[in-house]
Fold this protein.
Amino acid sequence: MELDAGHITPDKSSMPPAISILLLAHNKAAYTRRCLASLFLSSLRPSQVVLVDNGSTDETPRVLDEFQARATGEDIAVVRQRFDRNVGAIVGRNRGMELLTGRYWIFMDNDIVVRTRSWLERLQAVLDSDPGIGVVGPKLVYALPPHDIQCAGCAVTKGGRVIFRGRGRPREDPAYGTAQDCQTLISAVWMLPAEVARRVGPLDERFSPVQFEDIDYCYRIRDAGLRCRFEPGVEMYHFENVTTGRTGTLNYPYLTVKNGLKFKQKWAHRFTAEDGPPDDTWSWAAIPTVKLEDVPEKLETLP
């Protein structure tokens, strides 16, 4: 894929940030506005936010302007990168990763909304508690009450099928209430140390434009001798498939199958030897799509 050179507008800061957030947006401005506004609910503010506009043609640039004005006033360094066309989520994130300067890096989709206000310090505490943890992810829940689970970490079957643990189950289900290692996580939101990301390298652009690059990245982290950790003490709202699945120019089902095969070919030597679930346990609950306009303007937040 030919890379658009893009336009970079940095916001200078003399202090190296502790936590950097990377957010990628392609249109869907209303979701991006809700996501970015929720960052100000955080009890610990990120020190840097890198905003990658992947060729948006709606009012996304204005939304990013609004966020930058408020963030700068609250001592959050903002770096903007814009591509004139959609270069794909993987290329966009890889270019955005080059701009991150924090000691901890957050990947965040623009269809995420903060639910646990102390999410940053809690995820950081997990990483600090054990140098063997390479990446940590929260419990993702749906934005409509009763806020059932969307993803509580992922399992991979013996045949290489990815299971979203707990999908559609009550958020209080005790089976998904314990912090634990898991085979993989999705990158809708996760945190990893910058040194781990630099060691593992960029996302694999063979999965471009999107799909399975995050599953692959977790296996690369584990191949480096580190672990993936699910932390249920942090909950985040996720609208599911807004960032990529509702992009009209992408054939999402086709990409899922195509890149799923690439993942299986690349990592069969690992997941076939793991203690993953059997293939007949795989399921995908038919859960109605939750749209932004169906969700209350003020969502419940937790400490």
